[in-house]
Amino acid sequence: MPITFIPKNRIPSGGAGWLPKREDNPKNEQPSAPNDSFLPTLKKPEEPTRANGETRAETATLSLSSLNAAQQAALDQLPPVVAGALHHVWDVLGADSARAQLLELLEKNTLTQADQGQTVAESLQKMTAKPRGQGIDAESLTRQSVALLAQPNQFTNQGINTYTCGAANLQFEMAENPARLARFIEDITDGDGQMTFAQGETFVRPQGAELEDNSGRNSLNRIVQSTLMNFAGSARGPYDPSTDTFADGEHGLKMLEVARTAALLEGEPKVIVHHNSDSSKEFHRIMKSTEPGETFQVGVSWNDQDHLLVFTGQENGDAHFFNAQDSTTGSMPMDNFLFKTQFAVFGADKIEGADLPQDSVFRP
Question: What is the pLDDT of residue 61?
Fold first, then answer.
């Protein structure tokens, strides 16, 4: 059975191969559909004065010689190579608002985290120290990358009129490993536009990923999400960012493609569990056993349309989530959230020992 989805802001067509709609009243589930009036009304953004994650030109007043005690302590502990990279990036950023985001990364000890031997600070340094791909502004890329790494919930954005919610969610989840995300950005924006993982899988930036597409996204979101789309849906041919379609003419990622890509990026196997009457009891138990901050993608019925969110754990009976459509976080009672949920992309270990029907579990 093909597993795909129609993202929010799109009208599902009659022939969509999405997961079957679960019953209105699965076993052990009674809540009526909650009201989503707390969500902001989405509309086409006005022409921005600056791209998301881009700082305004301003006179820089922050100085590395006048840090607070915590910042100074973190700076003093940096290895020489990382400290040198920090100074380079500091000079590139220029504006106070961008430098404040860089100091967030310093205080959280993010700059020294490494992926395959390359620290976050070194990845950021390379964005201007080495040539970027055609049409990619290195300084803007660096500012947007610092913003995304410091505040992923504010600067991960799917934009409007795109089928990229699955890719935007993968981007958000990748921010949990900032060293991996920083190296990914640095690699896919250089001259050859490729990043190869240890397993031999290669992500390739598709042609035109850097171009404006009227989605309201900044260039970094367009590039990262287009590259993730290009890899995840590669079995269907190259992804065209200008039309948001694959070579077969289809939009969006199939859920098995999302799960396979998440497994590669996070280094652990994934499974998709369909929420229906037969799986309801175990599905609820698994969801309610999650810890605060535990993240995975879920397919939901959202404002009467199919959409993908990042579930970010439960606490005190409330489900927490991130919505890349408008870069917002939210929460609602878990039972109401479960009523909306049609499937989840769990880590394979999450369902070990679970009494789930075989036809409710899909493995990439």
Answer: 60
